[in-house]
Amino acid sequence: MQYYSIGDQAIDQLKQQLIDVQVKALFLVCGSHSYSSSGAQALLDPFFEERHIHVDMYIAHGPNPKEEDAHKGALLFNQSVAKTILAVGGGSCIDTAKLIKHFSNKPEAILIAIPTTAGTGSEATPFAVMYVDGVKKSVDSSALLPNSAYIYPPFTYGNSPYLTACTGFDALAQAIEAYWNIHSTPESDEYALKAMGLLRETLPLLLQNPSESRPDTPLLRSRLADGAYWAGRAIAISRTTAPHAFSYYLTSRHGYPHGHAVAATFPFFYEFNTQCPAEDYLGDDFELYQDKMEMMKLILALPNAAAFDFFLNLIGLTPFDTSTIDWADYFSHINMQRLQNNPRRLNDGTTEQLQRYLDLRFKLQ
Question: What is the DSSP code (8-state) at residue 137?
């Protein structure tokens, strides 16, 4: 069971936890710039010094965790006296910390996660992504769920509009995919609906006129962080589906940030799944699924692919250049594990329809 704290009191509660359990050493996993730029360093380093907490730092380089980097970090953690890992950064940083614990000889280590972005959900999930020779792999284990998650919205205030859009939309996608997933449960549905309600409204408000000096920015950033956490809780139960399955190639081979890569196919699969005929439904209760899809479209106020496409353009996630895509290579790298969670069966013509849609969407932008 994870302990979590969301809000302006989160860092004070982190400090109290470290005092209560008498932590004397930490293995700090952080980004090369985000630890300082987010304000985390200014808040945490003086506390570590005051409490005489020894800190071994490992810098998680790059936006996509690599297997070799995780093994290197695990070796350094094995050599450290620390028995607690503190991850401070974006989703890739937190995933790296999870993998370090996974590959280390300290499986009993305490893992604490503090996100500096709002959207990946890594602080709330029992799995981590890593790339092996450019191919995305997932490590899935209950031991990877951070023991504690401290979501402190001010750490996200400095995120650029594009980073905010990518991570924020990733969270919204997680919520939607958790909700239509054939493995959804009443619990995951509750978390997904909560996340959708927060994220759908907040993202456009925050990104239409982005400025950290706006008086409503703290409230909007707080709502975004809150929604992102609950989206992560939702996919921790049900996992993701087709839009994520088709996204990883765009990140590993073409460099699109994960949230933007997920957005690329989302309007297509939004209409594909919400218009699912009974004979193609892969779940157990088609009538319940239909009711859920109608409720979801009302909550999101997005009736079809065109409306979803407009929403993505509104928050700055425009179509990608399809002229650079090797389609045969792209479709050969679909993540089948994620695709198996999709509510609607894909047939022989689905990929051709998707390719035509992506080509047309790019040409019309």
Answer: E
Cα–Cα distance measured from residue 157 to residue 244, given in angstroms and rounded to the nearest whole number: 27
* pLDDT surpasses 90 at 350: yes
pLDDT band at 288 (very low <50, low <70, confident <90, very high): very high
Radius of gyration of the chain (CA): 20
The two most distant CA atoms of the chain are separated, in Å, by: 64
d(CA 86, CA 197): 30
Neighbours of 358 (CB within 10 A): 21
- Residue burial 187-200, b: 16+ Cβ < 10 Å; e: rest: ebbebbbbbbbbbb
- Structure-token pair, residue 332: 């050969």
The pTM for the full model equals: 0.94
How many Å apart are CA 361 and CA 80, to the nearest integer? 51
Q: Which helix (H) or strand (E) holds 112?
A: strand 110-115
**Beta strands 135-140; 127-132: pairing state:** antiparallel
Q: Is residue 212 scored above 80 in pLDDT?
A: no
- Section 15-38 average pLDDT: 95
Cα 165 from chain centre = 12
Contact 123, 93 (CB under 8 A): no
Mean pLDDT calculated for residue range 98-124: 95
How far does Cα 214 stand from its chain's mean position? 26
| Token couple for 70 | 């995780």
Q: Is residue 148 a contact partner of residue 112, using CB atoms and an 8 Å limit?
A: yes
What is each CA distance from 244 to 4, 141, 272, 298, in whole angstroms? Answer: 26, 19, 15, 23
pLDDT at 136 over 80: no
pLDDT band at 214 (very low <50, low <70, confident <90, very high): confident
pLDDT value at position 242? 97
Residue labelled with tokens 């704290």 = 5
In the chain, alpha helices (H): 10-20, 34-37, 40-50, 67-79, 91-103, 161-180, 186-208, 217-238, 242-245, 248-252, 258-274, 286-300, 305-314, 327-332, 336-339, 350-364
Tokens of 265: 């196919």
pLDDT at 299: 97
